[in-house]
């Protein structure tokens, strides 16, 4: 059952649309990735889920409550991208202060804070926050998101700008929280981290969701694994040659096609010299999706401009071309 449901969520700033009608549902216990280039609308989406920004339209329901409802705040832990801390306080004082705000009994809070900081391997808990390193501060911010023991966590760039060791702790800790049954909305630019912790993702661009699903399903929708068959003769399939023209590379999508190439090559008296597989990384897919989405927006803008200035009977053609571009983009969402 979905613990978090978002329906046609939209945020406009003046005439600018930062989030353009997002809809998705997250199942209890899932780690759900929100990825996209700078300015895609990720943080705006997460802040609307956390009740920190009022949507212009649409709804978000977290554990049966709408953002801003005090009961929802009890069930939610939000780690913002930037987390200013009270520099004069120690980590322990700071976290106890927030536990009080959530009415967590002192003894429960102390135990929870101790265990969380222990698991995050935070030393010098009585050092002033202002004197802590960036990584230590990030761990305190994570502990703050957990102080009320929420069911749902929203982590915006939890490990950005940290050293590899601290990053590793935080990514492993996220995985452990998921294993314990927490539902986590996870946004990060490091797609390797996204791939290692997320069950499903959405890819956003220019405020819109341009791809969604499990990483495997998205990979499949974007060509999946390619087989590169190298042979001494050209078996067709638009084979490419190397600089010396003495080897032909045939790129195909499945093993049946590999076998067909083998048959033709052997019939022609040639031989297969190598077969390699290439699976796109999430980064490859991300770059492809972002550039496709940019081309679609440009084509939409061009068509709108042309339709506005040339109302001479050709509008039907242009708009149907534009629609098919949108259909192609939507088919992948
Ligand atoms: N308060 C605001 N007023 C006007 N525009 C805003 C405001 N907040 C965000 N935006 C704009 O909305 C768009 C989406 O911003 P958002 O911070 O959600 O992107 P993001 O995907 O999180 O980017 P990044 O990866 O760089 O953090 C950007 O173009 C941003 O400039």
Could you characterize the architecture of this molecule?
- This protein is α/β, with parallel strands linked by helices and 333 residues long.
- The chain folds into two domains: 2-221, Rossmann fold, CATH 3.40.50.300; 225-278.
- Helix content is 42%, strand content 25%.
- It is built from eleven helices and 13 strands.
- A hairpin with a 2-residue loop joins strand 8 (200-205) and strand 9.
- It starts with a strand and ends with a helix.
- The model is unreliable at 309-333 (pLDDT under 50).
- It holds the Pfam family DrrA1-3_C.
- Residues 289-333 are annotated as: Disordered.
- GO terms for molecular function: ATP binding; ATP hydrolysis activity.
- Belongs to the ABC transporter superfamily.
How many angstroms separate the termini? 21 Å
CATH class of the largest domain: Alpha Beta
CATH topology category name of the largest domain: Rossmann fold
Percentage of residues assigned to helices? 40-55%
Share in β-strands: 15-25%
Query: Structural class given helices, strands, pairing?
Result: alpha/beta
Uncertain residue segments:
309-333
CATH superfamily of the largest domain: P-loop containing nucleotide triphosphate hydrolases
């Amino acid at each position: 059952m979905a613990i978090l449901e978002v329906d046609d969520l939209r945020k406009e700033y003046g005439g600018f649309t930062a989030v353009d009608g997002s809809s998705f549902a997250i199942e209890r216990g899932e780690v759900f990735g929100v990825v996209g280039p700078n300015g895609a609308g990720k943080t705006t989406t997460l802040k609307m889920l956390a009740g920190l920004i009022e949507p212009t339209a649409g709804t978000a329901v977290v554990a049966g409550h709408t953002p801003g409802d005090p009961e929802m705040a009890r069930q939610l832990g939000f780690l913002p991208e930037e987390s200013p801390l009270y520099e004069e306080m120690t980590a322990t004082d700071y976290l106890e202060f927030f536990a009080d705000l959530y009415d967590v009994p002192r003894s429960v809070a102390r135990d929870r804070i101790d265990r969380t900081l222990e698991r995050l391997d935070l030393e010098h808990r009585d050092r002033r926050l202002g004197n802590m390193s960036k990584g230590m501060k990030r761990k305190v911010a994570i502990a703050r998101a957990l102080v009320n023991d929420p069911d749902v966590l929203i982590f915006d760039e939890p490990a950005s700008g940290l050293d590899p060791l601290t990053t590793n702790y935080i990514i492993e800790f996220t995985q452990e929280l998921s294993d314990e049954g927490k539902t986590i909305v996870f946004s990060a630019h490091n797609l390797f981290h996204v791939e290692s912790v997320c069950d499903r993702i959405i890819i956003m661009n220019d405020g819109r969701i341009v791809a969604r699903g499990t990483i495997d399903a998205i990979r499949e929708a974007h060509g999946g694994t390619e087989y590169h068959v190298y042979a001494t003769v050209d078996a067709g399939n638009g084979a490419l040659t190397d600089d010396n023209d003495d080897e032909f590379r045939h790129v195909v999508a499945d093993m049946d096609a590999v076998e067909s190439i083998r048959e033709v090559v052997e019939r022609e008296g040639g031989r297969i010299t190598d077969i390699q597989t290439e699976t796109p990384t999430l980064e490859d897919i991300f770059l492809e999706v972002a550039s496709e989405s940019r081309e679609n927006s440009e084509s939409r803008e061009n068509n709108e401009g042309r339709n506005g200035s040339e109302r001479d009977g050709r509008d039907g053609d242009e708009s149907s071309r534009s629609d098919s571009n949108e259909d192609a983009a939507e088919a992948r969402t």
